[in-house]
Amino acid sequence: MNPIPLQESLTCEFKSDRQCLSDKDLIEAVVCMANGQGGEIYLGVEDDGSVTGLHVNHQHLDGLAALIANRTQPAITVTVESLSVDARPVARIAVPKSGTPVATNEGVSKRRRLQSNGEPECVPFYPHEFASRQASFGLLDMSAKAIAGATLADFDPIERARLRQFIERFNGDRALLELDDAQLDAALGLVARSPDGYSPTLTGLLLIGNENALRQTVPNHEIAFQIMDGEEVRMNEFMRLPLLSAIERVETLLKPLNTEHEFQSGLFRVPVPRIDARAFREALANAITHRDYFSRGAVHIRINDDEMTISNPGGFVEGVELNNLLTTEPCPRNPSLADALKRIGLVERTGRGVDLIYRGMLRYGRNLPDYSRSNAYSVVLRLSLADADQQFLKVVLAEEARLGGRMPIDSLIVLDALREGRRLKIDELAEAVQKEATRVRASVETLVESGLLQAHGTGRGRSYTLSSLLYDLQGKRAEYIRQAGFNKLQSEQLVKNFIQKHGRVTRSDVMTLCNMTKIQAYRLLKKMSDEKFIEKQGDKKSSFYVLGVF
Fold first, then answer.
1. In the chain, what percentage of residues exceed pLDDT 70?
2. CATH classification for the domain delimited by 488-547, as one of 1.25.10.10, 3.90.950.20, 3.10.129.10, 1.10.10.10
3. Measuring CA to CA, which residue among 318, 416, 443 is closest to residue 358?
4. Helices (H), 176-222
5. What is the pLDDT of residues 358-394, one digit of tens each?
6. Could you confirm whether domain 390-484 is CATH 3.60.110.10?
7. Is 54 within 8 Å of 27 (Cβ atoms)?
8. Cα–Cα distance, 421 to 465 (Å, whole number)
9. 265 or 334, which is more confident?
């Protein structure tokens, strides 16, 4: 097996050593990788992936790690491994991702990025980009810093009054309403102490700064609202308003699109919106809070016929990935701004706003929120605008009435996974919930006890489907039978009927016919053979069964 990747990527670099790569070029390559996502450098491999081996001067790798550490600031600790590929020596240098910008001893700093054609390259890492890097690692809160050139005169009294209205409207921290303006500014981190007194912070300007001041001092702040009709643009509005004004404006633009209908559930009429207002507000606030204010680009809200997309400049912060969105601890890129929005009441106070977004989609039977288009430079959230599944919503409402509160988010995700996957084991459900199987098992068994799920089998082979109740409500009884399988008598009769029609049956036929695993089909056929219902003919792989002779 070839230990060398097929091609270069953001985390893989090939370096030719036929001409004896200089220490300077190697050190710069390591710095570039450390300032990117980290990764591996293969010394002795050409750009096209062909292995040419190490130069004779690099055959001994014992001092390479020390050389790299001594010639980088701060020192980069790499792991060097010697490989042999096609009898040619290759050095694999594992470079960790650095939380702080690193440079060579000569002051050269580079970072790795992808070009428009998908190929990686090293580009200069400029000082003005350092703060963005530190913020993504949680080492710097730019939103708490005073903005150069801004003064308290840049605060808009109308926006401060709007802030107080938001606290009342969204049930924020009402203690803030008792404070005077100066105390309110200090409590929410809208100002920071400077040599000349107090100056507006980024949080302060974003929340209550006037529009002109924002354009001059925070030029990257922008929100775009777009409505698409196929390929035609029906609306395309860009705004540089203070955040609270911008949120109000977006809600006003969204209102005509958020059609709502009702359906009867017992004695009550239940409203079903096209867009869950709380989930949308949380998604928008997340985009505003987590965006990189050092990067150009707007927070985009795009709406077409079947989905809404909310995107922001700046990828996930360090430690947050697609496979741990639901379980990782809250880690905003701009903590001061996030805290202010929590106290105002605009975002979920525990920092688990992503749960609200998931709940706002799943309880209506819509698809999971989709972050799959996110990358190192932006977070992209897609929300389905498909019609709600009223029958599924009825089940959720009934269960919430029984519980006397909201269904756990884990339970909603499990139900959604089984609607898509039909029949899953506990490990597959745990992957969907992003938790350990032992923790998810309790939630799943609770759903079984409540009659929403049905378990099949025992031990490691235990699997789950939606219960017959859920399939019946949707008029899919036949689908339930296909997924849940048949009892032993039904399975035996199916096998007999198959033989009568086709003359014989094989184990693979039984697996397909009765929705069984290989071992389950084997046991059924052995039981029927032992009881003389069927008779085995042939040996091993060519064996088949015919009806027995009584």
1. 94
2. 1.10.10.10
3. 416
4. 181-187, 202-208, 211-217
5. 999 999 989 999 999 998 889 999 999 998 888 888 8
6. no
7. no
8. 9
9. 334
For 486-523, b/e burial (b = at least 16 CB within 10 A) is beeeebbebbbebbeeeeebbbebbbebbbbeeebbee
**Can you tell me the distance from the alpha carbon of 14 to that of 132, in angstroms, rounded to the nearest whole number?**
28
- The DSSP element (H or E) to which 397 belongs, if any, is helix 390-403
Question: For residue 250, what are its two tokens?
Answer: 């977006």
- Which amino acid is residue 132, in one-letter code? S
Calpha distance 409→390 (Å, rounded): 19
C-beta pairs of 20-29 under 8 Å, 24+ apart in sequence: 20/55, 20/57, 20/58, 21/55, 21/58, 23/67, 23/71, 24/104, 24/106, 26/68, 27/67, 27/68, 27/71, 27/72, 27/104, 28/104, 28/108, 28/110, 28/122, 29/122
**CATH match of 141-260+273-350+369-383 with 3.30.565.60:** yes
How far apart CA 506 and CA 521 sit, in angstroms, is: 9
* The residue count for the chain: 550
Phi, psi angles (nearest 5°) of residue 231: -95, -5
Within a 13 Å sphere around the CA of 158, how many CA atoms are in the beta-carbon half? Answer: 6
* Spatial distance between the Cα atoms of 313 and 376, rounded to a whole number of angstroms: 9
Q: 281: which 2 tokens?
A: 């507000």
405 class by beta-carbon count within 10 Å (0-12 exposed, 13-18 middle, 19+ buried): exposed
Tokens 């027995």 correspond to 548
Q: How confident is the model at residue 498 (pLDDT cuts 50, 70, 90)?
A: confident
pTM above 0.85, yes or no: no
| Residue 41 backbone phi and psi in degrees, to 5 | -110, 125
Q: What angle do CA 146, 152, 156 make, to 5 degrees?
A: 115
Instruction: Show me where the domains of the chain are located.
Output: 12-125, 141-260+273-350+369-383, 390-484, 488-547
The residue type of 138 is: G
Q: What Rg value do the Cα atoms of the chain yield, rounded?
A: 30
Q: Are 146 and 190 in contact (CB under 8 A)?
A: no
CATH of domain 12-125: 3.30.950.30
d(CA 165, CA 158): 11
Q: Who contacts 443 (Cβ-Cβ below 8 Å, separation ≥6)?
A: 408, 410, 411, 414, 433
Confidence of residue 478 (pLDDT cuts 50, 70, 90): very low
Would the CATH topology of 390-484 be identical to that of 488-547? Answer: yes
What token pair was written down for 491?
A: 């399975």
Q: Please give the C-alpha separations between residue 306 and each of 252, 384, 386, in angstroms, as whole numbers.
A: 20, 6, 6
Tell which residue, 548, 245, 248, 262, has the closest CA to residue 397. 262
